[in-house]
Amino acid sequence: MSFAVAFDFQSREETAIPPAEAAAWIARGRFCWLDLDLDDGDDLRAILIGLGFDGAAAAKAAAPEEETAYEVLPGALCFGLSEASYENGTLRTAAVRVWLNERALVTAHRGPVEFLRRMAETYREDFVRFSRSHGFLLYELGDSLLEIHRRSRRRFAVEVERLHENLLAASDDQVFSRVAALTRRLLQFRKIALDGAETLHELATRKSPVVPESTQPHLRATADAVQRIGEDLTVHRDTLNDAVNLYLSAVSHHTNRIVKRLTIVGTIFMPLTFLCGVYGMNMFIPEAEWKWIYLVFWLVCLATVVILLGLMRRWKWL
């Protein structure tokens, strides 16, 4: 749902207004934040022009969710931020396009965006206590995005730990498909987090008349925190890979032990098979000449097995 707020930084007063009236409040010296849900049918291009953005900025309104690059425009900035919210095994992403000039901040998106909802719920206390310019809105924007990513990272950590334990006790191959799916989500989340960190670094380091210098140190700290989240996700992915490798090594070791046992059994029965083949030939019948030949045959077989087992133990095959 779209909404707009007009701020007076001198008196620390805010007023909720219809987005269509933002231009009139700007003319009265207020700074306005417009959060526009494009699914509500707002004419983004007309709103941007009415707020004083030039044609180059308004041209970005055609497909705001497809634009993510940080761009410096005449008297304005245009950049994109994306959130990644992980809950119940599902990674939900949302793209937000932001326009900023000296009189207005516009955030445009399709559908609900969690970090903007959180920002709308929490900015008032900081506005009353700390705000001196519209720079506090940039800080709130980055801080809310950071908090959503932190929450998602913690949920990813729990899921990775659970999968790690399942891998060590895996009884079927379905766990591999779960690992593959979680790895894909980790990579997707990592890309979104690092892209957001890059954008926040641009805001924190590049001088611009629309970004107050007093806000940039806070933006830099937020950008560093978001970047660390991306690095933590790399650690989670490596943890999964190590667990998979450990599981495959355990399976390979178990298979080798089975093959080793089968080889030992085969080695024992090879000479016995040879003896049976020779003894079973019809060229002559040993029992007809010596009644103890059957017993001797079994003694020879038993001696062969004992000798082979002794040699295998000596060679440390057993």
Protein model, in words:
The chain has 318 residues and is an alpha+beta fold. The protein folds into 2 domains: 3-250, Beta Polymerase, domain 2; 257-314. The protein is 58% helix and 16% strand. It is built from 8 helices and 7 strands, in the order ββαβααββββααααα. Strands 2-1-3-7-6-5-4 form a 7-stranded mixed sheet. A hairpin with a 2-residue loop joins strand 4 and strand 5 (76-87). Helix 5 packs parallel to helix 7 and helix 7 packs antiparallel against helix 8. The chain is rod-shaped, with a radius of gyration of 36 Å. The model has no long low-confidence stretch (mean pLDDT 83).
Give a quick set of tags describing it:
seven-stranded mixed β-sheet, 2 domains, alpha+beta, rod-shaped, 318 residues, 8 helices, Beta Polymerase, domain 2
- Helix proportion: 55-70%
Query: For this structure, what is the CATH class of the largest domain?
Result: Alpha Beta
Poorly predicted segments: none
Strand content: 15-25%
Mean pLDDT: 83
Label the CATH architecture of the largest domain: 2-Layer Sandwich
Largest sheet: 7 strands, mixed
Short description:
The chain is α+β, with helices and mostly antiparallel strands and 318 residues long. It is 58% helix and 16% strand. It folds into 2 domains: 3-250, 2-Layer Sandwich (Beta Polymerase, domain 2); 257-314.
